[in-house]
Amino acid sequence: MDDLVTRIDGPHGSIAVVVDDPETEKIGSVVLAPAYGLTAENMFLPAYFLARNGFRVVRFDMRNHIGHSSGSMYEFHLSSVLEDLRVVTEWAGHAGLMAVSLSGRPAIRAAAERAPQWLVLVMPVVDVQYTIEVVTELPLFEMYHSDPIRPSLEVLGHEVGRQFIEDCERHAFVSAEDTARDFERVTAPSSVIYGRGDPWVRSSDVAKVASVRRRRKDDLRLQQVATSCHQIQRNPVIANRFMSTATRHAIALAGGDPKSVVIPSFAEVISRHQAVSVRRRGAADAAQERHAGDSGRGGPHDHVL
Fold first, then answer.
1. pLDDT confidence of 293, banded at 50, 70, 90?
2. Side-chain half-sphere of 93: how many Cα atoms within 13 Å?
3. Alpha carbon of 277 to those of 50, 189, 256, 284: distances in Å?
4. What pairs with residue 97 in β-bridges?
5. CA separation (Å) from 107 to 98, 104, 166?
6. How many whole angstroms separate alpha carbon 243 and alpha carbon 135?
7. Cα 5 from Cα 237, distance rounded (Å)
8. Are 108 and 186 in contact (CB under 8 A)?
9. Which domains does the chain have, with CATH numbers?
10. At what angle do helices 78-92 and 104-113 cross, to 10 degrees?
11. Which of 202, 212, 221, 227 could bond to 184 as cystine, CB 3.0-4.6 Å?
């Protein structure tokens, strides 16, 4: 894991990328898009599940977000994530695309524009307005129009500028109907794994979006997984359940046998993560020594993941 840590340049800044080589015989590559509020480092669990089952995994920090890519969280908007996906998928080459939660929305648009080898969506947010307003308990899209001087909004502890809503409305990232129009244009074989009991995403909205491709009898797989929360990274048991399912779907879409899936134990995941963390700290210490003569305030290219 963490076999390559690098940066790639896009039209509006640089993107921090981590590449994990497959831990077994390679069956394919996958770009792994993080959930809102998470970084490439936070996506270790799904990355390890995939690498353990033969995938080369390309994970990244979104720009205008927490992490080591360009921009600040205040500037976050979905069109920026879409641009990141365009840049990273092109850099990764022939690969599948897996996106989690809110990143699933721009991932659908990216897949509609340029088909990945396959697409797996894990708990995708398909009605952005509904989910954001449930999370914040505020009618933010209505407030955006009624309170033009409101400078920002707080979403899951992060201050985000009003450009987030402006961007959603300008680029049709608002409703489930918007998502369905994009999903109808996706031609890649796809799997949608969503939560039965997810408090932030309505199952009926996921079914509505999926129906536009089911009518075409496309290569589309739908699977519900029982959950009591949307932020699955906070519950190891539920996270394991979703990632086991997502990995099986990825293996099948890549042409492998999903029955051959290897499910690492919690102890194995923790041990592997600890080993990577030790190596990362060593790299960070070495980088700090190399920059000992600097002022102490490094730019974005000085970060070590």
1. low
2. 5
3. 19, 35, 31, 10
4. 31, 119
5. 8, 5, 19
6. 23
7. 29
8. yes
9. 4-126+176-285 (3.40.50.1820)
10. 50
11. 212
